[in-house]
Amino acid sequence: MLLVLTSCSEKKTITPENNTINIQGKLSGYDQSQGLMTYDEYDLLKKTRKNKFDIDSTGYFNFDITIEKPIKATLDFGRVMIKGNGNNRYVYLFLNPGDSIYIESDMDIISDKDIIKKTLKLKGSGAVNSTFANKEDYTFNSYTQRRNNNYTFIVEKQAADYTKTIDSIKEAKLKYLKEYQKTHQLSEKLVEVYKDEYENLAIIRKFNYPSSHEGYTNGEIAVLPDNYYDFVKDFKISDHLEEKGLPYLRFLHFYITNKLNLEKAQGKDPEFLDFVDQELKGKAKYIYLAYSLGTDFKAEVYNQFGKNCPYTDLALIVADKYGHLEKMLPGKPSPLFNLLDINDKKITSTDLFSKSFTYIDLWATWCKPCIAEFPSLYKLKEEYKDKNIKFVSLSIDKNKQDWIEYVTEHNLEGIQLWVDPENKKIIDDGFNITMIPRFVLLDPQGKILNANAPKPSNDKDIRKIFDTILNEKN
């Protein structure tokens, strides 16, 4: 996506043509020289974009972007600390190709934390939709509301009451949108996007409630009524994923993953591709599979986009986006890199990944989900200690001393190694590491068996893989 910055000295209104959007504004009470625009385009598999734009000494900015479909965007003017609390200076936009918008606002939130809300003015063809985006946020996303929705309700309410509360919030948002439409000409795409968001957020919160309740209440298990998960049966996935954009696909991946886990909890064990085929048909299925490769690059999914793929446009996108990850496929050699132990002794990956299967844990001392895997990892190690599987923990902490102190203080046993930044890049590229915790399984020749192996906490899945490879070896 090409970002074209126009001269700040011109300060004249520009009328966009075709697929160009012009965004201008004048801020007061602002002392920074740049802002950040983050946006999602509602088009086939388009990724989230981030563009910096210049702001002159008078607070004026003016830039163009070129798009094919509508976008939902956030203009980020920085975070300010007020009495120990962080406050984001955001302006929200919803724009169609060819729109223009002019933004005026006071950014001095230290003098009044609601100053943006009180002074924001939007003009231009994109003003009606973008004004709704900001007013909707002011109405439903205050600090108190966020705390209630993301903590208080989870702690205080039992499952049935929590579900009713979440549904009432969704209905209040839908009513607000409907009433707003009576007096404002909102775009059809905006209405569709917000309806999707309201429905999807309610489902996310219901799925997360049991684990969140347990986490916030020191292990108190939520009592779920027999019909708690009926909301899963009522949800219908869109048949037109090519028009939904990344936020919907991100939600869909969450939904399918959690629904699959529900079936596994009920004693079923469907394969991923079979389960997706059960949930989606036609092009929608292939669009979802293409998206899923970005978070979990699986050989069986990647192979769906070979020469027999019925949708050549998707096959070309997958080849362009993920072709470089073929080096992660089973049978490919592990990348070559160097590591250091706690005594600064250099260990080569060639020496480390030989003679036995190797289960690699990529983690960091600051990563709470990584540390949460430790009890399950220790249990797994103990269970397979007499088998031909080597367990290796690789820290990607930037500061080696942080890792040394953590290993020492917590008496971490087994093979504990640290990755310097240069070798971390090799690992990131070789295994497509985008987040941690991440687990990789190699064979005794150092070749990849699974570049995104199940976590130790997914005990049934990882044990099934371990038992299979050990039996095949024997």
Automatic annotation (TrEMBL):
<keyword id="KW-0201">Cytochrome c-type biogenesis</keyword>
<feature type="domain" description="Thioredoxin">
    <location>
        <begin position="328"/>
        <end position="471"/>
    </location>
</feature>
<dbReference type="InterPro" id="IPR036249">
    <property type="entry name" value="Thioredoxin-like_sf"/>
</dbReference>
<keyword id="KW-1015">Disulfide bond</keyword>
<dbReference type="InterPro" id="IPR013766">
    <property type="entry name" value="Thioredoxin_domain"/>
</dbReference>
<keyword id="KW-0676">Redox-active center</keyword>
<protein>
    <submittedName>
        <fullName>TlpA family protein disulfide reductase</fullName>
    </submittedName>
</protein>
<dbReference type="InterPro" id="IPR012336">
    <property type="entry name" value="Thioredoxin-like_fold"/>
</dbReference>
<dbReference type="InterPro" id="IPR050553">
    <property type="entry name" value="Thioredoxin_ResA/DsbE_sf"/>
</dbReference>
<dbReference type="Pfam" id="PF13905">
    <property type="entry name" value="Thioredoxin_8"/>
</dbReference>
